[in-house]
């Protein structure tokens, strides 16, 4: 595949704007060292161009036109190909204020650099062969990681665990393709006879590997994006108290007055490594209060779109019409029934809940005594991992692009199996095998087209 070459030098601020100890401007390209030398003067007057790679050089940035000093800085020099982009790279570390960062970047642009596009440094690393597409996407996943588990998924992808599995399947397919094509193109040569039964068995093995990866996609997505979790129940049942226990802080207002939470509160919480986008909804009940009524309607909509529903009931009180309504709403959802106030005498008809929500696990907790919270956390973990092996999260599929490519590759292998089973000519079997090989290549960037490459990197932040 041929990509458009961009040999120009790019520059961008690589740290968040605002006040901080240091800020970093990253410069990459063939002329990056000479370009920085135009505005940088080392303390010992020696130019960056005269220095070896991997050197940190102290000096000052000044405007060549006015001779005004902008800031004291340290320049980190990395010569090609041993840099992030495999190009000449200079990283300028200055004080972390908005003005020095912007002024230094402005000087670089004046002297010929171009402002980097979103994700262009990582895109160059990919195009120059330092990382593959799955690894490139993992860079942003690392930046966005919110828990240890999501970080392990991202670093595993960046380290190449996921790509290695894809390459192993592609290598096996390529071996089959080459054997078939040799037999088709050179029938007079002494090419080993192809045992279609053995080929079908091998294809089945590859399908199992692909299906195993596909089955990890839900877990991978949750660890990457967060599990949308709605806490629902009637007013004053303890929803906000549960949210506070999971957050380990008093985020939500807790009172004995029913209807305190009139709107939904959404927070990210790290539950034993799992990122939960947890929503504390308004209590579901009949009300004449217009504001509260809007909150109740929103609570119902959150139940519909949530990945997981934590349905709270008051164990110390008898079943009410509101409780029955909640049971109806969660009956066909992925839900955990949580019976609160286990420290009090129990009056709730639990048998009715078990009958109506037979697929939902029931957990007893006390938000006051903090009992049952660990069991609830373990139940959430079980639902997230859903039987997937946890020893290497880096092998999980973690975005829709990878998932769709795997599904299409699996379908092409299924078509190849059907062709072999029906004695379809071998050249048609090769078409299906090659299509599967290409779809898997899209995941690591070997066969993907340039428009998709541009679209993927457009989601990155500038400076990365």
Automatic annotation (TrEMBL):
GO terms for cellular component: cytosol. K(+) binds at residues 236, 255, 257, 260. The keyword Metal-binding applies. Mg(2+) binds at residues 240, 261. Residues 226-385 form the TrmE-type G domain. Keywords: Cytoplasm, GTP-binding, Hydrolase, Magnesium, Metal-binding, Nucleotide-binding, Potassium, tRNA processing. Its EC number is 3.6.-.-. Binds 1 potassium ion per subunit. GO terms for biological process: tRNA methylation; tRNA wobble uridine modification. InterPro entries: G_TrmE (IPR031168), GTP-bd (IPR006073), GTP-bd_TrmE_N (IPR018948), GTPase_MnmE (IPR004520), MnmE_dom2 (IPR027368), MnmE_helical (IPR025867), P-loop_NTPase (IPR027417), Small_GTP-bd (IPR005225). Its main location: cytoplasm. GO terms for molecular function: GTP binding; GTPase activity; identical protein binding; metal ion binding. (6S)-5-formyl-5,6,7,8-tetrahydrofolate binds at residues 26, 91, 130, 464. It is found in: Cytoplasm. It holds the Pfam family MnmE_helical. GTP binds at residues 236-241, 255-261, 280-283. The keyword GTP-binding applies. Homodimer. Heterotetramer of two MnmE and two MnmG subunits. Exhibits a very high intrinsic GTPase hydrolysis rate. Involved in the addition of a carboxymethylaminomethyl (cmnm) group at the wobble position (U34) of certain tRNAs, forming tRNA-cmnm(5)s(2)U34. Belongs to the TRAFAC class TrmE-Era-EngA-EngB-Septin-like GTPase superfamily. TrmE GTPase family. This is tRNA modification GTPase MnmE. It comes from Pectinatus cerevisiiphilus. The gene is mnmE.
């Amino acid at each position: 595949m041929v990509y458009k070459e961009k040999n120009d030098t790019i520059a961008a601020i690589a740290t968040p704007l605002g006040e901080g100890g240091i800020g970093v401007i990253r410069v990459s390209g063939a002329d990056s060292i000479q370009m920085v030398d135009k505005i940088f003067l080392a303390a010992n007057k020696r130019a960056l161009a005269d220095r070896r790679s991997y050197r940190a050089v102290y000096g000052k940035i000044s405007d060549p036109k006015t001779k005004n000093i902008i800031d004291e800085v340290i320049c980190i020099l990395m010569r090609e190909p041993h840099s992030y982009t495999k190009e000449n790279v200079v990283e300028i570390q200055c004080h972390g204020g908005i003005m020095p960062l912007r002024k230094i970047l402005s000087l670089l642009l004046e002297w010929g650099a171009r402002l980097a596009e979103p994700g262009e440094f990582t895109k160059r690393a990919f195009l120059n062969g330092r990382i593959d597409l799955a690894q490139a996407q993992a860079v942003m996943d690392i930046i966005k990681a919110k828990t240890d588990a999501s970080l392990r998924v991202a670093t595993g992808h960046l380290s190449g665990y996921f790509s290695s599995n894809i390459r192993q399947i592609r290598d096996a397919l390529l071996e089959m393709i080459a054997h078939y094509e040799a037999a088709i193109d050179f029938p007079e040569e002494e090419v080993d006879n192809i045992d279609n039964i053995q080929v079908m068995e091998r294809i089945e093995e590859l399908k199992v590997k692909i299906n195993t990866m596909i089955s990890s996609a839900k877990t991978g997505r949750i660890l990457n994006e967060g599990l949308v979790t709605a806490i629902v129940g009637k007013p004053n049942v303890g929803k906000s108290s549960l949210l506070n226990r999971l957050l380990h802080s008093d985020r939500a207002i807790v009172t004995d007055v029913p209807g305190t939470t009139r709107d939904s509160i959404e927070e990210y919480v790290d539950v034993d490594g799992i990122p939960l986008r947890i929503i504390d909804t308004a209590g579901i009940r009949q009300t004449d209060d217009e504001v509260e009524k809007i909150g109740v309607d929103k609570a119902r909509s959150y139940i519909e779109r949530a990945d997981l529903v934590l349905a709270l009931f008051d164990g110390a009180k008898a079943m009410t019409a509101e409780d029955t309504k909640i049971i109806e709403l969660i009956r066909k959802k992925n839900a955990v029934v949580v019976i609160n106030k286990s420290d009090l005498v129990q009056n709730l008809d639990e048998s009715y809940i078990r009958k109506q929500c037979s697929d939902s696990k029931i957990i007893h907790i006390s938000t006051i005594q903090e009992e049952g919270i660990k069991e609830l956390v373990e139940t959430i973990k079980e639902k997230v991992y859903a039987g997937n092996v946890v020893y290497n999260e880096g092998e999980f599929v973690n975005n829709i692009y990878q998932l769709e490519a795997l599904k299409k590759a699996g379908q092409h292998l299924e078509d190849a199996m059907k062709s072999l089973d029906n004695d379809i000519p071998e050249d048609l079997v090769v078409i299906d095998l090659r299509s599967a090989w290409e779809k898997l290549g899209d995941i690591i960037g070997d066969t993907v087209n340039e428009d998709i490459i541009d679209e993927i990197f457009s989601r990155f932040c500038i400076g990365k």
